Amino acid sequence: MNSKRNDRIATGVIYLLVGIVILLLVGIIGNILISGVPHLSWHFLTSASSSFEAGGGIRDQLFNSLYLLILTLLISLPIALGAAIYLAEYAKDNWVTQLIRTTIEILSSLPSIVVGLFGYLLFVVQFGLGFSIIAGALALTFFNLPILTSNIEEAIKGVPQTQREAGWALGLSNWKTIRGIVLPAALPGIITGIILSAGRVFGEAAALIYTAGQSGSTVDYSNWNMFSPTSFLNVMRPAETLAVHIWKVNTEGIIPDVTVVSAATSALLVIVVIIFNFGARALGNWLYNRLTAAKIK
Amino acid sequence: MENWQTQKTYIKTFKDEDCAIYTEDLSVFYGGTIQKLFDVSLGFKKNTITALIGASGSGKSTFLRSLNRMNDRVARVDGKIMFHDLDVNQQKINVYELRKAIGMVFQKPNPFPKSIRENITYALKANGQQDKQKLDQIVEESLRAAALWDEVKDKLDKSALALSGGQQQRLCIARAIALKPEILLLDEPASALDPVSTAKLEDTLKQLRKKYTMVMVTHNMQQASRISEYTAFFHLGHALEYDTTTNIFTNPQGEITEKYIQGSFG
Question: Where would one find the signal peptide in this protein (chain A) (predicted)?
Answer without folding.
Answer: none
